[in-house]
Specification:
heterodimer; A: 343 residues; mainly alpha; Cytochrome Bc1 Complex, Chain D, domain 2; 2 domains; 2 strands; globular; B: 234 residues; alpha+beta; nine-stranded mixed beta sheet; four-stranded mixed beta sheet; 4 helices; 38% strand
Chain lengths: 343, 234
């Protein structure tokens, strides 16, 4: 018996992962299958905590001032509230609105133009961008390798005593994958746990007829790229997806954002030009600019009465998920940072 | 006791399968400019009577190594990704482990990284994005990085910086190379930098940082500059 225990202990110690609790990713009821391949990056609670630590740690930026959370704040669905364009190190301003982060396991391409092809490599873009974190990724890994604190975390989470770039990115992915928002009033209505008001119901009907072909339920985005008829900004001159694909038909197309938590994720559009939902609806009824790549659904003008606009907004507010916005598991990791080497 | 014998037999079987019938084929890649058979990052090399070049960085991926016998594939390296860096001479030497008595007379490999790997997220080893060969603003590997200085470049300090890559049509830059080896051991390959650089219009193309037609053309020229050290005797 003693031999069996000793062998089991040796196996546990050598395997490295033995005491790590794996994380079961749950797909909400009636949602599609996630596209992220969890087999290539099996989640565990330690790696998720490590990823959360990295997400909130300004060590990722060149001058240790900006973290992922600087532009992706939890209470606003992980976008940058009140900032049309986010600012990075040395107050440098970028050219696009920070996208909200949620339900990332269902997305294949990232950024407004889909420049990033996998969640694992997404973090490289803001880390390296001179207007965001302005840091080289090899330098980030070097800084982490020098930290005794992170050494322990990587060893526990990935059995990695050296800290690799691969595991740094995979840890950040693991935390971001947990950012699932599926507990709005809309969701509870779908689960027959509550009911829409008459106004919300009217708004939902209008939404289904006019908006849902791009903002597809239940994720409230098709995650495709569309030109929604915004006049081109002379200052930013942002041509959108064509910069990545070089196809003419992709000119001025941007990724369709999810409408979940839209109440808190203002300002809206790829350049944050609209502050209020009413401005967004006014754009769709009066502001569409025609062009060769305009989305087919927007070629026929949309018409909503003032009351109908209010109804649609009432419905959109049912997409707010406070259990997501205020979930302490996604917040600033106070306990971890008490022992952080940066403090 | 019975269990002990069984375990011992299993170990012997596994050991035999893994180690017994394999042989090692060494590969060496030499980098040459004219008569210079090794390239130093602080030396200046003459391209002709008037022009010269200094190479500060040369890094590239060799991937998907395959051995062929009379154009038939007979062995494929698994997880075949090698980052070659002239500032790290050991990176130009690596070994293939193949079954004993494998007959081959050709080696096939890619210069760069294929599209499936480019779409596979964060990877480790030589493919780790911290190796400085991954684009951050747009996903994908830099297949080949050449940086340096030349009087041909009408740029600040005569510097040039070519980052060649891209996996999406129509600017997929990865190149396939097949060389006749005649079963030579070790397999010695030359990357003739002079031949390649002569085909790069450095006066016009001194900075490439994204997938483009020029990136594809210069990658093709690079692939044509690989040859086997000693040509096969017929």
């Amino acid at each position: 018996m003693r031999k069996v225990i000793i062998i089991a202990l040796i196996l546990c110690l050598t395997s490295g992962y033995a005491f790590i609790k794996s994380y079961e990713f749950t797909v909400p009821e009636n949602w599609p299958k996630p596209v992220y391949n969890f087999n290539k990056n099996p989640p565990n609670f330690t790696a998720i905590e490590l990823g959360r630590n990295l997400f909130y740690d300004p060590i990722l930026s060149k001058d240790n001032t900006i973290s992922c959370a600087s532009c992706h704040l939890q209470y606003t669905a992980f976008t940058h509230v009140d900032h049309a364009l986010s600012h990075g190190i040395n107050d440098r301003i970028g050219t696009r609105n920070a996208p909200a982060l949620m339900n990332l396991a269902w997305q294949r391409q990232f950024m407004w133009d889909g420049a990033i092809n996998h969640l694992d490599v997404q973090a490289l873009a803001p880390i390296n961008h001179p207007d965001e974190m302005g840091e080289s990724f090899d330098s980030v890994v070097f800084k982490l390798q020098k930290s005794k604190y992170y050494k322990k975390w990587f060893l526990l989470a990935f059995n990695d005593s050296n800290i690799s770039g691969e595991h740094t990115l995979k840890a950040i992915s693991q935390f971001m994958l947990t950012l699932v928002s599926s507990n709005s009033k809309y969701d509870s209505v779908k689960r027959h746990q509550s009911k829409f008001t008459a106004q919300e119901k009217r708004g939902y009907q209008l939404f289904k007829i006019n908006c849902s072909s791009c903002h597809t339920e239940p994720l409230f985005s098709s995650y495709q790229f569309e030109n929604n008829g915004l006049p081109i900004s002379n200052e930013l001159k942002d041509s959108g997806r064509i910069r990545i694909t070089h196809y003419l038909q992709d000119a001025f197309k941007f990724k369709v954002p999810s409408l979940r938590n839209i109440e808190f994720s203002y300002p809206y559009m790829h350049d944050g030009r609209f502050k209020k939902l009413s401005e967004v609806l006014n754009h769709y009824t009066q502001g569409i600019q025609s062009s060769e790549t305009l989305a087919a659904q927007l070629r026929k003008p949309m018409a909503f009465s003032a009351n109908e606009k209010v109804d649609i907004i009432a419905f959109l507010l049912t997409l707010t998920d406070k259990t997501f916005l205020f979930n302490p598991k996604f917040g600033y990791p106070k306990k971890i940072f008490n022992t952080s080497p940066n403090k | 006791m019975k269990h002990g014998i069984f375990l011992f037999l299993c170990c012997v079987l596994i050991f035999n399968t893994i180690f017994a019938q394999s042989s090692i084929v060494k590969i060496q890649i030499k980098h040459a400019i004219g008569d210079s058979k090794t390239i130093c990052t602080d030396s200046i090399y003459r391209l002709n009577q008037h022009d010269s070049i200094k190479i500060t960085t040369l890094r590239y991926y060799i991937s998907g190594i395959e051995l062929l016998l009379n154009n038939q594939s007979i062995w494929i390296e698994t997880n075949s990704f090698h980052l070659i860096d002239i500032s790290d001479s050991s990176s130009s030497f690596f070994a293939l482990k193949l079954p004993q008595n494998t007959q081959y007379n050709q080696i096939k490999f890619n210069l760069g990284i294929d599209s499936i790997t480019s779409n596979a997220g964060a990877l480790g080893g030589d493919l780790d994005p911290s190796k400085g060969m991954y684009w951050s603003w747009q996903s994908g590997y830099i297949n080949l990085k050449l940086e340096g200085k030349s009087n041909l470049c009408k740029t600040n300090n005569q510097l040039f910086q070519l980052h060649l890559g891209g996996y999406l049509y129509p600017y997929s830059a990865m190149q396939q190379i097949v060389l006749n080896t005649c079963d030579q051991m070790p397999i010695c390959i030359v990357f003739d930098l002079e031949k390649w650089i002569q085909k790069i219009p450095l006066d016009l193309q001194h900075h490439i940082m994204s997938p483009s037609n020029n990136s594809v053309l210069i990658s093709k020229a690079a692939a044509q500059a690989f040859r086997i050290c000693t040509p096969c005797e017929k």
